What does this fold into?
Amino acid sequence: MSQMNRRRALHLLTALGTTGLTAACSSADEAASAPTGDPVKIGLIVPQSGGYKAIGDEIVNGFRLYLALRHQQLGGHPVTLLTADEGDSAKTGMAAVDKLLKEGVLALTGVVNSTVMAGIRDTVEKARVPLIGSNASPKSLQSVVYIWRTSYVLDEPGRALGPYMAQRLPASSRVALIAPDNLGSRDVIQGLQDKFSKAGPADPRIADPVIWTDPTNTPGNSTYAADIRKALQRKPDAIFCHFGGLAAVQFIKQLHRAGWTGPIYAPGFLTEGTVLNEVQEVEARNIVTALNYSAYLNNTANRTFASAYRKAHGGSPTTYAMASYDAAQVLDKAIRLAGANPTSQQVNLALGKIGQIDSPRGAWQFNQPRTPQQKWYLRKVQRDGQILSNMLINELATLG
It folds into this structure.
């Protein structure tokens, strides 16, 4: 696999400087020189407060970056981007969809919370307006016509990491599984159990009951202490968990305070975004994760994307921003295929014809369930210079 550590990436991007960004913009000039169609409206659904707001901000950043590099156009049409707050429930998600549909949007995108995605499914399908989800993707979301996703199916992080863990852990090992009791975590755990070994959930290494934490608790300094004590009483050799954002920060810190120094395995959300800025090296040094993206992948699309993102936002992009950037790219292609006066139904048909996407994560394409067929990568938290980073180790699998 071609890979690039953080120092090499930063050196290259510094050398590119304004030249790299100018090249990217020049490419955009060629693709979107002058509008060829009437203005269109795109609806972006993200959480605007609460524990998922940071992910929502990344999704907004990724979509807006793509528009900025293409003169605020998709498929030759000037774009007005309308946003709505998905909240934290099916009810608030449906209110956001209804608001945007009344505004006459051509398509929808975004959605962070799997509960929200499941709750708005029927409304979107009935409206016959395509939704290109850029994060939430529960396994139960089957047989949809108008819902596409540029992220992943939520059981895939566990499916990617399971075989690697099984190879690394001796037959006498025990793994403690800890996650919040919600739809996304259950998908992740099931993926791990299904692919850990041929024995599946019956493999004695992962046979202990999952320790489910209360997902309604606002993460604080002792939120997970009791659940962690319960896990450590089992005398595990490794821990598998599923947390993100503020919950991830608190879980990592509390696990370390409880005396754990062994390996921690998780989907990449555990250390994605600003999490590594909030924890100490001694707290995170044994964390290994699986994710569909790294900001340091060495391909042309990622160099363009990561350079532009760093210039715009002063930090490295996340998988959330990348998936939203790709959602804009997908819409760009589909709207262009739909012609001068696209309807939502025509755009939805065109989504099935766009073929391979040249993405920062590496090339991918939609499969029959309307999710990406893509590579998954193994990462380990290591110090690189003055900061902690998710360093690429190797490829794990191609899923989807």
Observations:
- Confidence is low (pLDDT under 50) at residues 1-32.
- DSSP finds 13 helices and 14 strands in the chain.
- The radius of gyration is 21 Å.
- The first helix runs from residue 6 to 31.
